[in-house]
Amino acid sequence: MYGIAWSPDGKHIISAENNSTVTLVDTFHDPDAPNKTYFGPSDTYLDHSGPVYDVTWSPDGTRVAWAGHDKIVVVISVYDGVPTYNRNSILTYGGHNAAVHAVAWSPDGTRIVSASSDGTIHIWNAQTGKTLLTKNQEGEILAVAWAPFPRGEHIASGGTHKAVHIWDTTDGHTINTYQKHTGTIFDLAWSSGSSPYIASASADGTVQVWDAYDKHADKKNILTYTGHRDAVHSVTWSPDETHIASGSTDGTVHIWGTEDPMKGSTTSLYQVGSAVNVVAWSPDGSYIASGSDNTIMNIWKAPKS
């Protein structure tokens, strides 16, 4: 399992699988046990001819996009949380020449950015599929993250070149470059509020948190988390930005603090038992989901701040 995304309302999870499928999972509450949440599979989709690497919901929760090894990005519409599986309503974007590893929506939901092993990043219209901008970077691009408001015209991207680039979506010019990692960049996550922080997960075994606009972040990043024993493949902020969850090839998910006095200290550790490829925090902060090489999704109660 390579990708997991919660719907903005937290009622659904969609996962990208190693075996070319995408699965939608419903979450629901028992009225007789309001503090308990249940998770159950809803639908499975077979739109790709190879592994699906990433999946994401539109900000308004009405559409889902996913990207795969077969070079395409698929967009489907969603009505009241139920995917409308009418092939006439599906948009397929085929602008890349190699596997597409990462995909993300713009904060206003009008555009999608996709990143590929072909060394290109494309921004395209989420309704028509028209390519609006193409940016070239060295190496394979494995991670891309669109900045939330108020910096919604900026994107962070990284991959095998080991550097993270912050750049402008209007013309593609680079705003800042972060080069403190010594291994491939597998994942990136912007903090969700007004603070301009990015967490980057790397094959060097670290997660590093830094200011996206500090030209000297390489020398004075905010913190470097070294709790994992192997490559870190995924990183996600808690909604209140006080903690980060990271998943690693070492088979664990770590929850750690980003504020004093817990700065960079592990607060919870989950033994998953198989290489963790993706972690995702629920929008209300109550749950964390992880996906592993064994194709199993694990969901558990997030620790209280």
Please tag this protein with its features.
2 domains, 305 residues, Methylamine Dehydrogenase, Chain H, WD repeat, four-stranded antiparallel beta sheet, 28 strands
Description:
- The chain is mainly β.
- The protein has 2 domains: 1-136, Methylamine Dehydrogenase, Chain H; 139-305, YVTN repeat-like/Quinoprotein amine dehydrogenase (Methylamine Dehydrogenase, Chain H), CATH 2.130.10.
- The chain is 0% helix and 53% strand.
- The protein has no helices and 28 strands.
- It has strands at residues 3-6, 12-16, 22-30, 33-45, 52-57, 63-68, 73-79, 82-84, 91-93, 100-105, 111-116, 120-125, 131-136, 141-146, 154-159, 164-168, 174-178, 185-190, 197-202, 207-211, 223-225, 232-237, 243-248, 252-257, 266-271, 276-281, 287-292, 297-301.
- β23 and β24 form a beta hairpin.
- The model has no long low-confidence stretch (mean pLDDT 88).
- WD repeats lie at residues 93-134, 134-177, 178-211, 225-256, 269-305.
- Pfam families: WD40 (PF00400).
Low-confidence stretches: none
Q: How many domains make up the 3D coordinates?
A: 2
Mean pLDDT across all residues, rounded?
A: 88
Kindly report the name of the CATH homologous superfamily of the largest domain: YVTN repeat-like/Quinoprotein amine dehydrogenase
Share in β-strands? over 45%
CATH class of the largest domain: Mainly Beta
Class based on secondary structure composition and strand pairing? mainly beta
- Just name the CATH architecture of the largest domain: 7 Propeller
This entry's quaternary arrangement is single chain
Q: In angstroms, what is the radius of gyration? A: 18 Å
Strands, total number: 28
* Outline type: globular
